């Protein structure tokens, strides 16, 4: 089929996520047909640098021979079988590998297929953990602590512990109760605070809210170090450690949602490592299969899992599962992805490209419309503002972030903004020269979009 025919069918029948469909139809988005390394190629043969790792999940590139081969080899065995009443070779091998690589104490691996379900499962496990330990707790431990502006996915549970206001406006009535902890990011402080006094306030509020609510809290869920979908908001050093100390003190299980930050993104394999923190639950998805296939894991400690042990008649098993739980092709892709981290020394590459990003981002420091640049590893948010002094945003109807992505796309780079925060998420395996190309094109696109609007 020609591009026009495909586009007509897409416009007619494909309902795209988070998308106002009229805008999608007007815009004639590229229709991707193939990939090559870190590039996407559309049906008209145009090639684009994949500047956001295909929504933050690609790790080693597209059409990576080792990953393709691992999936083909698994296809020669079996594509899928169930984990209900049966086990499977790749799910066993992957669990062993994950337990070896994640912080000590995380010894159990529960499979699902998206970041949202990984979090949903952790929430349900935490809730049932208390109920299993003490039935009275199922009546009282009915509250979750989460971070202001957090994003943990789109299921009802994961939205309940999120802080994206439009989701709460629309689905509020369906959500369960949570306690929102102020996000310790000084740039977005309310009037009347200095940077220092706002961070002090945030640490104090963390302590107060946990002290006040600990008897009702089933768990505390956090994106360690970086709140990605909030616009790459970065917590100050020591914050995660303090959260771990307090949750331990009050006996509140800690859920680390490393769906975005895990698998090398922040410079270490897992973000928790940077503050020496072991959570009670660790959620992974996105990059776990190198961006090839849907797979997620919720890891838990022995202590959590022990509360689910018992006889059939105890009815305290974890009552949750999906048809494709532990899919064999996805597990094979994940095993090959982890192996490539070692063979390609991907974490060293992240350190090198992160240094390139530091150097290149410095060029924007004095830019009159760049309010803040947030960067860790291969995660970057460039916040565009109408007024640097007052930190005033551009009018939302300008859709400046979006205009930047259109200008970048015209010049062969795919990026996707979060409001007026321009996001760069090069794959952890992307070589330095392509990261340079990404910066060249996006920085020029920022200027082009601003010139058109201001
Ligand atoms: N948690 C975090 C931190 C995320 O960034 C995301 C997605 O961006 C999710 C959960 C949801 O993952 P998924 O889109 O695979 O459901």
UniProtKB/TrEMBL annotation:
Entry keywords, A to Z: Aminotransferase, Biotin biosynthesis, Cytoplasm, Pyridoxal phosphate, S-adenosyl-L-methionine, Transferase
A Pfam match: Aminotran_3
Localization, UniProt: Cytoplasm
MF terms (GO), sorted A to Z: transaminase activity
Catalytic activity: (8S)-8-amino-7-oxononanoate + S-adenosyl-L-methionine = S-adenosyl-4-methylsulfanyl-2-oxobutanoate + (7R,8S)-7,8-diammoniononanoate
Residues the record lists as binding substrate: 151, 286, 321, 416
Pathway note: Cofactor biosynthesis; biotin biosynthesis; 7,8-diaminononanoate from 8-amino-7-oxononanoate (SAM route): step 1/1
Cofactor dependency: pyridoxal 5'-phosphate
Subunit-structure text: Homodimer.
Protein name listed in UniProt: Adenosylmethionine-8-amino-7-oxononanoate aminotransferase
Organism: Gimesia maris
